[in-house]
Amino acid sequence: MVTITLGLGIIALIITALQLWLGSDPSVIFQIAQVFSFVFIEVSMFCLGSSLIGTVSSDLDFAIYSSEWYVADVKFRKAAQMLMVRSRRNANLTALRMYPVNLETLEAILQFTYSATALAIGNI
């Protein structure tokens, strides 16, 4: 689902950037600028949200380890140990089960959108 959303977002960003560059009617340009900004916000929220989830999940491991979990009762110690083991692997969104979705991904998407738009405008 994340892959489809990001892929469609990239396509929409490229198309709207082309229409912004080549458009001549001010009202149409304004509408396309709105679409561009909405798609950009959607893609940014995916990337930023996933980045924040990864950061918080790594902070969770440190917070549990820093607490005095070893002096608590046995049930709590077992739960804390399981949480520490589980939180060693950061939780984050992935595209195609291979590529992490984070702020670096957002930067790559923006660079690709700019490059594809510049290439398309150069060929027109």
From TrEMBL:
GO terms for cellular component: plasma membrane. It is a multi-pass membrane protein. Its main location: membrane. It is found in: Cell membrane. Pfam families: 7tm_6. InterPro entries: 7tm6_olfct_rcpt. Signal peptide: none annotated. The chain crosses the membrane at residues 5-22, 28-48. One of its GO terms (molecular function) is odorant binding. GO terms for biological process: signal transduction. The keyword Membrane applies. Keywords: Cell membrane, Membrane, Olfaction, Receptor, Sensory transduction, Transducer, Transmembrane, Transmembrane helix. PANTHER family: ODORANT RECEPTOR, ODORANT RECEPTOR 19A-RELATED. This is Odorant receptor. It comes from Nezara viridula. The lineage of its organism: Eukaryota, Metazoa, Ecdysozoa, Arthropoda, Hexapoda.
